[in-house]
Write the structure tokens for this entry.
Amino acid sequence: MGPDAGPLPVVAIVGRPNVGKSTLVNRIIGRREAVVEDVPGVTRDRVTYEASWRGRRFTLVDTGGWDPDATGMGLRIAEQAQVAAELADVVVFVVDATVGVTDADEAVGTVLRRSGKPVILAANKVDNQRLELEVAALWSLGLGEPHPVSALHGRASGDLLDVVLDALPEAPPERFGVERGPRRVALVGKPNVGKSSLLNKLVGEERVLVDPMAGTTRDPVDELVELGGRTWRFVDTAGIRRRERELKGADFYAGMRTKAALERSEVAVVLIDASQPLTEQDLRIMSMVIDSGRAMVVAFNKWDLLDEDRRHMLEREIDRQMVRTPWALRVNISAKTGRNVDKLVPAIERALDSWSTRVPTARLNAFMAELVAATPPPVRGGKQPKILFATQADVEPPRFVLFTSGFLEETYRRYVERRIREEFGFAGSPIMVSMRIRERRGAAPAKRR
Ligand code: GDP
Ligand code: GDP
């Protein structure tokens, strides 16, 4: 993952119609020759653009693209502002200084003040200096200093962007690939499945590095192992080497150890003894991995012991019992003979890639528009819930949020998840799809302009 693959900070432009949002967006992306994400065949307006100012890149969200008449998606202005504030790092609130503060502006202002997000108040259409008093009047919104700008003529738009840039959050260090260090792998599985055998196999054939971080012999001890041309951190290997099955209360401690190892890992390799029937404990460990939100590779070990009959049985057990994780990557190995052990690393890498994948907002919304057009959400209580906007709010694991006008049935959300997987991959990674329902609010903002 290069430094370019990290998530960009999001700047949302909000304001009532006609204040000059689109003009401002064009000014920002046009002047800086930003890359415009163009999605052909989209049934709704484009809403996000990639832009940059003084070398800093960010994603620009134009809420004007959600215009109810243009797209048939009836988000009211204050609701738009709410959504924008939820998904943005910084909100630019555009007000028409020649008109002054309207009821709708006040409603938006209230939403934004409550959001806790940094808000930059842009006093637009200040084409000349004669509007000084009108600009000053915008202090009444309670959002701090109004920044005069003329989106049309470009006046002071650079100053406005400077202020926006100052308000952007610093990128957290893990967004830069170089800072991240070796990827962390947990080797988990019930006692006797072959964890220490596999570890020995992996470590024995490769160069073992002593982890400079773990200076003592106390738990947890990680091992740095070079595999497939890169260094990996296998977490809490002391627990594996200690042969926990020889301890009293082994199950309990094994469970604790697994939890702790998962906590410190990014990807889990779940080892299963393929020569024996799948057990409750195998399934419980897989559930622990799923609940931890880590990427997962399932390694069916002791493959050297399998005959034709057992292989058939195993496939049936997997079909029956692993329905929750059709996405898990699977490798059949033998820690004893070394069979397929070299397939483990590519599987781990693929799972981690999926785990870190971010779908651009414009692409996701284009996909969602098509999905909803083909298969609309089921009617509930006489109403058809609408998906107003979708965004991938997080990675590691990927988390999607659907902003909706009503409740989406669990089955429909599962359907959306399945379709997202089909479209964008995510093999080896759990993904989450949640929804935020826009409540109809009693006090509608006035329509005055
Ligand atoms: P949106 O609905 O908020 O996206 O507004 P638009 O960007 O479509 O602008 C609405 C109208 O205001 C258009 O006729 C623009 O040309 C005009 N406009 C936008 N910015 C300025 C400005 O800085 N000065 C003046 N005089 N007009 C502007
Ligand atoms: P752990 O408790 O999960 O660490 O499991 P161990 O690595 O101690 O292995 C338990 C037993 O299974 C040992 O007797 C190993 O020799 C054996 N074993 C591990 N991997 C394999 C394998 O791939 N094939 C066969 N036949 N035996 C294995």
